[in-house]
């Protein structure tokens, strides 16, 4: 079975047409399918429009929890062996779905869409190229469009994916870190006809912090002491050397050291080192104590019009 998961937020004018296009494509594929819309707390009439649709499942959040949580809810609901995600703004073309299935049937666990001829504002395209270039450089994952919402997932990968914050932007990096096989396929991209883009300048800063999170998660998600421990030991050792030196000066030359700024620096470095090491140790204990991640969303209503 194929599961199609569409997270939406304020897309009341787009969801009816997207639903019509999806049905046209999926029925012609002659495979069992399900369509799952996740309304991420829309403030317009999106949920009202979704309830009118046939052959769909609808999950409605109590408020806006973000795209990562909408995807998580959709993955949890999905029952297909192959899961397709696309945005609800009609810019992703459902006719491209067979491309994703072909790549997954060839062995890929994650297939990323690549909007070769992207029809967005020049500023959005420019920022996206910079972000993708930086991410490719630091993660080593050779994907042209990390944040493309049009993706194909195997059930195994989707069910094991843990997202929070805005980590949906870096799903390929998370997949590569866990050892899943990644592929890429060019897709047709269309202009937005209705509604407003959710991409803003603020998201550049938000994306930067999420990028730092990904870099940390790649190496230290299950061993935070390996990150904080060296920092703590370095700081502690530097402080210890300073205090040892001042002690030697005091004993050997009988020079007063109480008013020296170097004494304060040495004491500070020792305490900071102890704090860093303790933070890493506590992090290790938390990781081993909490194996499962809790839900970070609240479902207001479920609708099943099958």
UniProtKB/TrEMBL annotation:
Annotated Glycosyltransferase 2-like domain residues: 3-159
UniProt feature coiled coil, ranges: none
Gene Ontology, cellular component aspect: plasma membrane
Keyword Protein biosynthesis on entry: no
Gene3D superfamilies: Spore Coat Polysaccharide Biosynthesis Protein SpsA, Chain A
Family matches, as InterPro entries: Glyco_trans_2-like (IPR001173), Glycosyltransferase_2 (IPR050256), Nucleotide-diphossugar_trans (IPR029044)
One GO process term, biological-process aspect: lipopolysaccharide biosynthetic process
UniProt keyword annotations, A-Z: Cell membrane, Glycosyltransferase, Lipopolysaccharide biosynthesis, Membrane, Transferase, Transmembrane, Transmembrane helix
UniProt protein name: Glycosyltransferase 2-like domain-containing protein
Origin species: Candidatus Sungbacteria bacterium RIFCSPHIGHO2_01_FULL_47_32
């Amino acid at each position: 079975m194929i599961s199609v998961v569409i997270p939406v937020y304020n897309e009341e004018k787009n969801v009816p047409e997207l639903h019509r296009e999806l049905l046209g494509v999926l029925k012609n594929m002659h495979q069992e399918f399900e369509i799952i819309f996740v309304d991420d707390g829309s403030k317009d009439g999106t949920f009202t429009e979704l309830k009118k649709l046939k052959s769909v499942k609808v999950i409605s959040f109590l408020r806006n929890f973000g795209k990562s949580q909408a995807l998580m809810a959709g993955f949890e609901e999905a029952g297909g062996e192959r899961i397709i995600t696309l945005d609800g703004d009609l810019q992703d073309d459902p006719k491209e779905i067979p491309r994703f299935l072909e790549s997954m049937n060839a062995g890929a666990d994650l297939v990323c869409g690549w909007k070769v001829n992207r029809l967005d504002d020049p500023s959005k395209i420019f920022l996206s190229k910079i972000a993708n270039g930086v991410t490719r450089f630091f993660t080593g994952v050779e994907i042209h469009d990390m944040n493309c919402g049009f993706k194909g997932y195997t059930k195994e990968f989707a069910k094991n994916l843990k997202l929070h914050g805005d980590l949906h932007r870096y799903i390929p990096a998370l997949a590569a870190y866990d050892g899943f096989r990644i592929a890429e396929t060019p897709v047709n991209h269309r202009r937005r006809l209705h509604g407003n883009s959710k991409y803003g300048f603020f998201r550049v800063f938000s994306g930067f912090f999420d990028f730092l999170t990904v870099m940390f998660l790649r190496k230290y998600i299950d061993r935070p002491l390996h990150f904080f421990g060296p920092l703590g030991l370095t700081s502690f050792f530097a402080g210890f050397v300073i205090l040892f030196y001042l002690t030697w000066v005091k004993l050997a030359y009988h020079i007063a050291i109480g008013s020296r700024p170097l004494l304060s620096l040495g004491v500070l470095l020792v305490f900071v080192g102890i704090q860093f090491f303790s933070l890493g140790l506590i992090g290790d204990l938390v990781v081993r104590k909490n194996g499962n991640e809790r839900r970070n969303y609240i479902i207001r209503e479920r609708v099943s019009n099958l």
